[in-house]
Amino acid sequence: MLDVSREQALAYRIAEHGLHREGTGTHELPLLDLGLQDSMRDTALLSLAARRSGPVTPESLVDDPRLVLVWSHRGAPHFHRRADIAELTASLVPLGDADALARMVWQQKELREAGRSAVDILFETARAIRKTVTRPMTKGAASTAITKLLPPAFSRWCRPCGTTHVHEQLMRLATLHGGVRLEAGQSPATLAPLADRGRLSTRPVPDAVARVLERYLRFNGPATPGDAAGFTGSARACVTEIWPTERLTEVRLAGRRTFLPTDRLPALENPPTPAGVRLLPPLDPFTQCRDKAVLVPDKGRAKEIWKILGSPGALLVDGEILGIWRTKATGKRLTFTVTAFDPLRRADRDATEAEAARAATARGYRDIAVNWA
């Protein structure tokens, strides 16, 4: 069995994530095989800026007709290639009730109490969404209309909204099955029908799910079945049933039994040396890996990077996360506050400020300031 050091694994991941910035165009970005999460302010745009060598602007994602924003993995919004939507939708069909319930995350208890199969609940909601969202409409309006078509057990009283509406996670998981996307760049969140809605299919496609697991391992491996299950939102027991063993090789990393797609072994054995500075936004695909102790072994530093609410961005220097950063917009100025865990070389500080300027441009700001905490 191949024994891999932490440094080797990180070097491999950085290369697979495209963080060497080798000139890939947006649509060709390999990470779009999994999707770029866009849960916070311009997260996907900043992840793109960290990987593309060319200019990135506020329009780079929202104006690309080859891309579409949908609620996908774990019910989180991701940009995907339009050409991949059919297979993506198939991969999100639960393998059974246990899988469907696991994907409901914090709303499992309430949906168990509905007295119905979790799979049935998901697809009844999808049918209501398909019937309701036939034109662009705000999430609030869509939720109100959908709720009226569903049994009361599918809904809950929402204090922030001051009304009863369909469970949030249930709606997110059902929307793509209902043939509905999100309008990129719109606030408040707006739903719209996909150009090609296709037919609603409730049939599990284990091979499609297995391919998602394999892609997770390509970008974030070597990793465990539990790590891959965490990305999809499924339960490990469900993942074990469809684990693509024939296409994977077992590798030992940090004392753990992990896996990597067999065709990526040469890249793991001889990865390029990480170099340079990148500003990774909160929820960047690189920091979204499930084995966070591999990325940042120091528990104190890990607590600064991954918070329950309001996580900062990560400062990546020569392959190691050596600090955090936040931004604050005041009028037309975007101010970056960077906190380094250890003193940085002058060249690294200069490179950080250059990356801040690049990130600001991606968000549409020309006036920037960088403060070192």
Automatic annotation (TrEMBL):
Pfam families: AlkZ-like (PF06224). InterPro entries: AlkZ-like (IPR009351). This is Crosslink repair DNA glycosylase YcaQ family protein. The lineage of its organism: Bacteria, Bacillati, Actinomycetota, Actinomycetes, Pseudonocardiales.
